[in-house]
Amino acid sequence: MIPDPSFLTVRDLYVQFKTEDGVVKAVDGLSFGLDRGRTLGIVGESGSGKSVTSMAVMGLHDPRYSEVSGEVWLDGENLLTATPRRMEALRGRKVAMIFQDSLSSLSPFHTVGSQIGEVLTKHTGASRREARERAIEMLARVGIPQPKLRVDAYPHEFSGGMRQRAMIAMALVCDPELVIADEPTTALDVTVQAQILDLLKALQEETGSAIIMITHDLGVIADVADEVMVMYAGRAIERGTRREVLKAPGHPYTWGLLASMPHLATDPDSPLRPVRGTPPSLLTLPSGCPFHPRCDYADRVPVDLCSTERPDLHPRTGHSSACYLSQTVKDQIRG
């Protein structure tokens, strides 16, 4: 069981891709929920299923190459059973996505203002003049200097941080109720990154939107998320509030992610402590817990449970982790 909020509920989501080598289980039975005005941080290594999950919520997987099943309820409507025409109407208006690479996501042949205005025209029927005025307003809203001049600029004339702000303006021009931000601060310097995160938080307070923040950076999660879900091999392996997951993590994988982060108090000459090994192939997942081949504590669990039985998140709404280690052993390990 998972929380059943009134806004977003994902139940038993599966996303599979057929390849010449077999079926890739990119998302494998994922469930989570999110209320309005809240931010869910989804964290994990590359290949854990974070972006594939967001694409499924947006209805962007091509059915010719993928198989998506389960339920994605948004404000009482199951998006996985919606028609392509209905999803087209919802995208941008009800749910919007900020993509990772703003340069490739923006058309180089059209001005930034025309691309922002096109979203408004498509969903509201606004005139060209109204769309241009709204684009200027949105550029000012996201902190672009001289918006009346910048509205006619092309993406290559913007810096990386400005392009990302323009992407946020495009995503929010119709005031969507759910915003999915997929690595929105990747490749930005720390100052611009902080500005982008502050902007998203301010806009959320202004509009009351729900945000899914997808990242591999636990520092970003610590800054913006209300709740955190840790993914590994297409599954949720830990879930809880930000404080619960970051201050008292219950899964060895989360321990490893936290230990691999540099800290200001750490000796700058000390080596980083990465999670050993590599993520498993999604074509041939190991039996039992998918993390057990990389786990330093699997031998602390009796009768080889880790390698034979798949652990699931505890069926309660609070902090839980998919791990067979007893709480006593976890406390001993964590000191």
TrEMBL record:
It is found in: Cell membrane. It comes from Nonomuraea soli. InterPro entries: AAA+_ATPase, ABC_Ni/Peptide_Import, ABC_transporter-like_ATP-bd, ABC_transporter-like_CS, Oligopep_ABC_C, P-loop_NTPase. It is a peripheral membrane protein. GO terms for cellular component: plasma membrane. Pfam families: ABC_tran, oligo_HPY. Belongs to the ABC transporter superfamily. This is Peptide/nickel transport system ATP-binding protein. One of its GO terms (molecular function) is ATP hydrolysis activity.
